Amino acid sequence: MIFTVEISCYPLSSDYLRIVDSFIVKMNEYDGIKAITSYSSTLIIGESDVVFPALQREIERTFTEEGKASFVMKVLGGDLSESVDITPYA
């Protein structure tokens, strides 16, 4: 099944931009994952058997190599990279 994970990384470090960038770059290196970055989060999209092990490895890597950080995630079913028309609800 395809999942979309919206994830934000908040390193507890003055060098936070480098740490966030490193996490995003690593996620983009996985085959079968589409990573779409915006100002406050990144969408990680792909099959569950690819997405979740990749997230586990890269979150653990961040903790091991960079120290303390907070990750905030939302997990949604399906590929939610396309816009949803909310005009009828506006």
Automatic annotation (TrEMBL):
SUPFAM superfamilies the record matches: MTH1187/YkoF-like
Top-level taxon of origin: Bacteria
One Pfam family here: Ykof
Residues of the Thiamin/hydroxymethyl pyrimidine-binding YkoF putative domain: 5-59
Gene3D superfamilies assigned to the protein according to its UniProt record, in alphabetical order: 3.30.70.930
Name under which the protein is recorded: Thiamin/hydroxymethyl pyrimidine-binding YkoF putative domain-containing protein
